[in-house]
C-alpha cells in the first residue's frame, strides 16, 4: 500500500486552551495510539489533503521534529459541523508482525458481456474490509467482471486474496449486472413477436 508522510510536532500541553491555540494557527491536533503510550502531536491542516480528500487509502509515516518516526494508519477523524475544517485526527501505529484491518476500494476491471448486451453494472460494495500484515495491505481489491452475463452477480468469494483476508460473509455481493429497462422491454417485445406467428397459424 502507498504511504504518505505527515510532519508534525509533539505536544507538551493537550488542554482545551492549547488545542484552541493550535487550531487558530492552522494546525490539527492528533493522537497516535497502538504504542506503549499515546503520542499527542500537531500537524498543518494542509498536510492531510492527500490523506483525507481522496477515494484512495494510504498508510502514513508520521515524522516529528524531535526525530521520532512512526508508521501508522488513520483511525478516526473529526470535522467541524459547519466549516468542515479538520478538528482532530486519530492514528493507529503499525507493527510489522501484527495484522491490521482496513477498508480498501474496489477496482473494477475487464468487460462484462452482460453490460455489452445492455445490462447495467451495479457496484454493491465500493470498499471492502481486509486484514493483513502492513507490508501486504493492498491499494485496492480487483474485481474482474469479464465473465459476468446479464443478471449474474460477483460474490466476494471470487476475489483473489492471497496475501490478505476479506472480512465479509461468503454471500456478500460485490457487483451485479442488472437487466436494464430497455433490455427487458426488448425481450418482452421479442417474446410477443415470437408468439404472433403461432397464433396466426391456429386461425
UniProtKB/TrEMBL annotation:
Domain Large ribosomal subunit protein bL25 beta stretches? 99-179
Sequence ranges assigned to domain Large ribosomal subunit protein bL25 L25 in this UniProt record: 6-91
Q: Name one GO cellular component term.
A: ribosome
Q: Name one Pfam family in it.
A: Ribosomal_TL5_C
Stretches assigned to coiled coil? none
Q: What keywords sit in the KW lines?
A: Ribonucleoprotein, Ribosomal protein, RNA-binding, rRNA-binding
The record's similarity note reads: Belongs to the bacterial ribosomal protein bL25 family. CTC subfamily.
Task of the protein: This is one of the proteins that binds to the 5S RNA in the ribosome where it forms part of the central protuberance.
Summarize subunit and interaction data from the UniProt record for this chain: Part of the 50S ribosomal subunit; part of the 5S rRNA/L5/L18/L25 subcomplex. Contacts the 5S rRNA. Binds to the 5S rRNA independently of L5 and L18.
**What name has this protein been given in UniProt?**
Large ribosomal subunit protein bL25
Amino acid at each position: 500500500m502507498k504511504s504518505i508522510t505527515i510532519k508534525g510536532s509533539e505536544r507538551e500541553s493537550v488542554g482545551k486552551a492549547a488545542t484552541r491555540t493550535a487550531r487558530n494557527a492552522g494546525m490539527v491536533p492528533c493522537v497516535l495510539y497502538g504504542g506503549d503510550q499515546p503520542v499527542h502531536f500537531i500537524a498543518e491542516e494542509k498536510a492531510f489533503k492527500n490523506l483525507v480528500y481522496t477515494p484512495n487509502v494510504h498508510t502514513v509515516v508520521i515524522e516529528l521534529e524531535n526525530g521520532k518516526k512512526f508508521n501508522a494508519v488513520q483511525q478516526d477523524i473529526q470535522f467541524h459541523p459547519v466549516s468542515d475544517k479538520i478538528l482532530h485526527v486519530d492514528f493507529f501505529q503499525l507493527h510489522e508482525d501484527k495484522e491490521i484491518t482496513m477498508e480498501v476500494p474496489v477496482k473494477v476491471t475487464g468487460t462484462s458481456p452482460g453490460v455489452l448486451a445492455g445490462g447495467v453494472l451495479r457496484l454493491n460494495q465500493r470498499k471492502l474490509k481486509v486484514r493483513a500484515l502492513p507490508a501486504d495491505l493492498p491499494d485496492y481489491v480487483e474485481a474482474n467482471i469479464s465473465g459476468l452475463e446479464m443478471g449474474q452477480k460477483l460474490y466476494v468469494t471470487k476475489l483473489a486474496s492471497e496475501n490478505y483476508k476479506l472480512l465479509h460473509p461468503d454471500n456478500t455481493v460485490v457487483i451485479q449486472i442488472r437487466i436494464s429497462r430497455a433490455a427487458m422491454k426488448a425481450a418482452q417485445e421479442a417474446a410477443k413477436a415470437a408468439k404472433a406467428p403461432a397464433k396466426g397459424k391456429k386461425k
